[in-house]
Amino acid sequence: MGLLADDPNDPVPIAHRARVLEAAWPPDIPDRLTFLESRCRGRSLLDVGCVAHAEARLESDEWLHGRLARVAARCVGVDILESGVEAVRAAGFDAVVHDLRDGLGPLAERGPFDVIVAGELIEHVPDLDMILATAAEGLPPDGELILTTPNPHAPQRVRAGQLGIVWENVDHVSYLFPSGMAELAERRGLVLAQAATIARRPRPGAAATQRLKRRFAGATGAMSAAEPWAVRARHSSTRARSPDPCADSFDRGRASSVRRLSMSSATVRDGASVPLP
Predict the structure, then answer these.
(1) Is residue 5 part of a domain?
(2) 144: domain CATH number?
């Protein structure tokens, strides 16, 4: 934001960020897995954290890597869990043991990738820039990074914090929000393209409760009771120049090749945009 003003609280960068988020905010995403499948179908894919914490999940139809590998033209998984990667390979999938804090490493020769997905991962890692650096290095100009992550603004999470109730996964170390993701993306030459909530699947008998929550959200302007975010980002090298003088000043300071990040619980594309649970 220093390209727009030295003070991040200045109205100019705040107005710029508001425009980015307004353009990136679509309706709620009905289903996380269906959304990710639609973004990866027929494309080359790098799935970060493919083991999904536990080898037992490989047997589930909800296992993200298995679902995405079936629709992608080419899919490579990466994880730091050696035994988990061995199990993924034994199940017939292409996977690599590698720590992305060391860069793309052996994945460099496998790329670039049309899409990089990090599903329900960033809340577990202390070095979020690792994911953005991977996107900046591993995506082509029209590629995108997609993130899904817990929504820190979900009403039940906010209320639990107010009451001091402890119920979160103890392995979660950070939660991110669209404006923060937009800033982190821009620092890596990416841009937030989409940020959306993922609608919670209604429980049996909970229809009235869901209607009440949505009515309350609409009346207050608050976010709905959706669980995650989804974000997408991509390169902004082909982005049309904006007539907005504030946006123009931002573009002039940007490198010629910028990626866009989009985020719903989180998606990010190379250059300009970022989704999140």
Answers:
(1) no
(2) 3.40.50.150
Which residues neighbour 266 within 8 Å (Cβ) at sequence distance 6 or greater? 118, 122, 146, 147, 148, 149, 176, 181, 195, 229, 230, 231, 232, 274, 275, 276
pLDDT score for 3: 59
Q: Say what angle helices 178-187 and 129-138 make with each other, to 10 degrees.
A: 50
Give the residue, 273 or 112, on which the prediction is more confident. 112
What is residue 160's three-state secondary structure? helix
Asked whether the bond before 30 is cis by omega within 30 degrees of 0, the reply is no
Q: For residue 2, tell me if it sits in a domain.
A: no
Whether 197 is covered by a domain: the verdict is: yes
Tell me if 276 is assigned to some domain: no
Quote the domain boundaries for residue 105: 11-269
As for how many domains the chain has, the answer is 1
Task: Output the pTM of the full model.
Answer: 0.74
User: What DSSP element (H or E) covers 34?
Assistant: helix 32-40
Q: Which of 6-10, 13-17, 240-244 has the lowest mean pLDDT?
A: 240-244
What is the phi/psi pair of residue 165, to 5°? Answer: -85, 130
Angle between helices 245-252 and 11-24 (to 10 degrees): 90
